[in-house]
Amino acid sequence: MNPVEQARQDALSLFKELGLPNKCNEDWKYTDVSRLEGLLDIGGVGADVHSEGLGMVDLDAYRMVFANGVFDAAQSNLPDAVEIVSLAALEASVSGEESKALAKLFHVSGNEPLVNGLTALNAAIASDGAAVCLADNSVLDKPLYILHVSNQNNAIRHGLMLGENAQAQVIEHFISVGEENALSNCVTAVILKNGASLEHSRLQQEGKKQAHVARVEVKQFRDSSYTFHGIELGASLSRTDLVVSLSEPGASCELNGLFVLDGRQHVDHHTRIDHQAPHCVSRENYRTVLDGRSHGVFNGKVVVHKGAIKTDSSQSNGNLLLSNHAQIDTKPELEIYNDDVKCAHGATVGQLDDKQLFYLRSRGICEEAAQELLVFAFADEILAAMSNQVVRSYVEKAAFAKLPHASDLDGLMG
Amino acid sequence: MLVIKDLHVSVGGKEILKGLNLTINAGEVHAIMGPNGAGKSTLSNVIAGHDGYEVTSGSLTYKGEDLLAMKPEERAWAGVFLAFQYPVEIPGVNNTYLLKAGVNAKRKHQGLTELDAFDFMSVVKEKAKLVELDASFLSRSVNEGFSGGEKKRNEIFQMAVLEPDLALLDETDSGLDIDALRIVAGGINKLRSPDRAIVMITHYQRLLDYIEPDFVHVLAEGKIQKTGDKSLALKLEEHGYDWVKENL
């Protein structure tokens, strides 16, 4: 058996051992995934789903489309000179040492933070993904836009490896066609070598009955920088585990998150940042806007390991509840095994500010529009961190469309 | 323009205004002075439509209409403007966007066509000069990170853009140093017009050195206790509010 097959077999065994996470596990206290029991099998891969004309059509980017977890070359557009290929194609073509290297992408250890049965299952069954390997000192001249279109269970696994001083912008976008009760199980593994820099967006906009589980694991080396934008608008159940390890001095990460939820949507982000080396910086800023009976969960854990002196870490989480039935569970967790560190965190939960509302109305903005404007402004402060204005504007419009009082706020986004 | 008759207002069950009468006509500038807790800010908030105040009796008639039946935004469309004592910061809401939305909501209500971005910007730039407000403030979030003086200048700038018929200036002079006071007062003076009434609420006489009022009222214990011309303000400055109380 070749090393990749072996790794996948091991992952399957691990899945069988771990099973689905349940509420006995503290990390899954607020998120019940028992309904996923019947959705784990990805079945006949590659069932037809059309992706033409979907997603961010105006974005000037390299494009990689996955239809139900299978690379759709006809809808994609990739650079010639850079190493961006379909993982399935790579898997079929490698042998020997290359195969050993690739096997690492499928290796799952139950001892890693936030690893669970679904992570292991993904490694075992993932049908495809983007395999990106940027050479040292290379700059991807356009963003890489990865569009996932689905109407059935799918499992996808991306590996993004940036060589020394390499730079890239990657946008993952998840949408579904129709309203199937299905599961997308997605893993993105990122490695940033010395001085590499990645801006990584994930926009989850799947259908109302869809379930979405994801793990993003980032390993950072010296002076590398990672920026994450996690936008949650879709699906009925969505869970993301985001694990960043700052393993060498000078590495920095910035994690931004925004949930805009309504109905009975449930979205949970568990993030963990490991400061393993001195002089690393982490910034985390999550906001949620919750309407209806929606439920948001944010758990942000920062671990400052022994020896990680001069750590600079801050975290903030703001939550806006638009309905009496919406719920947020927020929990910052700091574990510090060191002196000489700077760590700050804060969480707020609230409704719209009456003084701000009155101020806007006294200037002639009608009540519904004033409410919407304040909600939008609250959410948009997270999106302001996005460097790509086309992506930001797309997300703004999509988030805006979910706000309770659709009214005319044209020009706001100018 | 505005007729207030026997106005009684309570906040949290406590009566603040106890039968206030006041008539304001177009073209007039009124100064309402009084000690802390007299009900000055309550009066301006009630006129602007803040819902934290309970009007237990009396009437507010604006241009012949019952002001109390109107929402705050409807009052703004009808030409009422309040320059806040403590302008609130609104992160993420662009100053210019707010004004454009406000102006166009009013124009729409009046049956006028909405201003396009270009026309609007030329109006805005011209008005910003009135209070020597740097153009960089236009693209910032409403009042966010503004100093006390900048917030007050921004209020008068908004007044200039929104062109109200009835402007209430709630302690616009407080927290201003002498240079800022001169600039703000200069802006207000330029906004005086025969069609516009201005009501200045203030603790101090010094604002009136710059803006000469037609009427000065003393508000104490929930009522207008005295009305006179600008010499009343000087008398107050000299004798203090106790003088009014003693002469009740």
Describe this structure in words.
- Chain A is built from 7 helices and 19 strands.
- With 414 residues, chain A is α/β, with parallel strands linked by helices.
- Chain A folds into 2 domains: 3-351, no CATH class; 353-414, no CATH class.
- The mean pLDDT of chain A is 93.
- Chain B has one domain (2-246): Rossmann fold (3-Layer(aba) Sandwich).
- In chain B, 45% of the residues are buried.
- The A-B interface holds A 353-356, 358-367, 369-370, 373-374, 376-378, 380-381, 384, 409, 411-412, 414 and B 48-52, 71-73, 75-77, 81-82, 84, 87-88, 90-94, 97-103, 105-106, 117, 141-142, 158, 162.
Round the Cα radius of gyration of chain B to an integer and report it: 18 Å
CATH architecture heading of chain B: 3-Layer(aba) Sandwich
Q: What count of domains describes the coordinates of chain A? A: 2
Class computed from helices, strands and strand pairing of chain B:
alpha/beta
CATH class of chain B: Alpha Beta
Structural class of chain A comes to alpha/beta
Percent of sequence in beta strands of chain B: 25-35%
> What's the shape of chain B?
globular
